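agent: user wants the structure for Nitrite reductase small subunit NirD from Chitinimonas arctica. delegating to structure tool.
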Amino acid sequence: MPINAPWIRLCSLDDIPRLGSRVVKRANGDLAVFRTETDAVFALLDQCPHKGGPLSQGIVHGETVTCPLHGWAIDLASGTAKAPDQGCARRFAVKVEAGDVFLGLC
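agent: tool returned. relaying tokens verbatim.
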């Protein structure tokens, strides 16, 4: 992301449950914003690369989410499916500052 890229506030960190997610509605595809047990935050397009299942409804464990439809494990940091599966969910830049979650607009 460019150094001076704009950021938009999405929500408070507390608005995302630990080991859960929050959906951000967008005209060109919803985002799933995930929070891990250690308060790391990640954002992916809310579609599994396999069959388009809602990743936001998956189970978060470590820095992975498991798709609720067919059990694909998706790495939250990269969006990449874990072996033996192949594919990638689009990821988005996020940051947490002073308890607020921001999405990078680039």
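agent: one observation worth passing along. Residues 10-104 form a domain with the Rieske Iron-sulfur Protein fold (CATH 2.102.10.10).
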